[in-house]
Amino acid sequence: MIRAWTDNRERINDAIDEQFKRVFKAMHKFITSCGATCIFFAQSLRLVFKGPFRWDEIIRHMEFIGNRSVLIIAMTSVFTGMALSYQIFLGFVKVNATNLVGPTVGMGILRELGPVLTGLMVAARAGGAMAARLGTMRVSEQIDALEVMGIDSKQYLVAPRILAAVITVPMLCAIFDFMAMMGAHFMSITVLGMDEAIFWDKIALWLNPGDVYQGLFKAAVFGVCFATICSNRGFNASGGAKGVGEATNQGVVNSMVLIIILNFFLTNFIRFFYVAMGWR
Amino acid sequence: MSEAISEQKASVIAAIQIKDLRKSFDGGKDFVLNGVNLEIPKGLVTCIIGFSGTGKSVLLKHILGLIKPTSGTIEILGKDISGMDMDQLIKMRTRLGVLFQYAALFDDMSVMDNVTFPIKEHKKEMKLTEMEAIAKKKLAQVGLDEKHFHKLPSELSGGMRKRVGLARALALDPEIILYDEPTTGLDPILAEVVDDLILETHKAHAGSTSVVISHDLFAAFRISDYIVMLDKGGVLLAGKPDDFLKSDNALIKKFLSKGLKQG
Asked: Which chain A residue is nearest to residue B174, measuring alpha carbons?
């Protein structure tokens, strides 16, 4: 073993060096990309509040992000609510605590699953389309054309998308919450035979409007997150159709990963904020 | 070369003046533009030619303010754009019109909407009917039939798209009209039609300056009053078409023999 190490020391050292280089290169790329996205976000955020407000564009994007996502949100939410309530029922029945199925499902959906799954679904559907659309506009010089016409391309293309996402994703999250609770109700009452009055009474007892608000707040943050990342990727796409494909893929994957990571920090931040304010 | 430039300088005022323009995309290791000094005369058709990869498109992007130079200055109509902020650039760009290589039409807008778009953005006080009247006039000027006005760009041929792109570039009556490889991808007959269109447009917009980026030497000689040849990130020769024919430079001779043979 020692002999093999000595004989191949140089090769092993080179291989380790290569791995380190690869890791540092990836880290450098990741940090650079995060920095570029943050700068892009700061520039776009400034433009969101700067006129002219392009209401027709904002409404058009709200329709695209929101209206066209309602069906997939409704479908995923109903089945999520049903599956979650069934699993919780199976766990709680062992400790004879089925009365708490309603509030546990409610808490999970309103605080976590509602905003996260809504964010993920919309990032995959609307975010991907956003990155692809802007990427195509970039490689076909349509963004350059906008700029040489004396139009701020970020103000025209990105700001309305971010604003539309901030307004629309919480609305979709509210739909998700409602439909998921309906799914949970159907599963718990109709299928599992739980008492309807106890189910809703416990929900009313254990949950409060703050649970809904924090979910909607998270959804708004996720909306900003996916709209910024996907717009940034599309806006800076290069290299023809291949570049557009890569931008779309990166936009969707990065948004999804960030939504999940951000959710953890937001949960802790909101909890800290609630405790600091003396709320439950 | 210097004689030609000084002769030109004496007779006309520059619409675009570029001084010692350098651009590197890799932190100074390699320069795409390496000290470009150039004056594009006002009121004439100028053609910027050169082999592929000599920096023609990068130069165009600098003129349009889409890229910031590593060093040097670019004066458009007497104003240095290299240090301008976005708001100042936006104002300046309304004085320029650009026909992109593949027209760059907005694919979700009809022909009419594409042409009225810059007017809607910059002349908000105008009524829609007035905007449409201007758009119709510009579309007629580039020879596009009314039956195409409500079509989407995807329903048009390459030549028609270029016409719409030119009509859109002319919508705000720009002082400088830039054409990026206007005949690329077109058959020789259509390329000639586009060349004629450039000349007609230039005549119709009295006092305007036209700048054509091209590698089509035949077209350059047909339409230009002034030609600039780029090589290795710098200006190889700038002058009247005759100056090129008289030149002893081996590279120019090679470019001329190949280009004119193809034409």
From this structure: A149
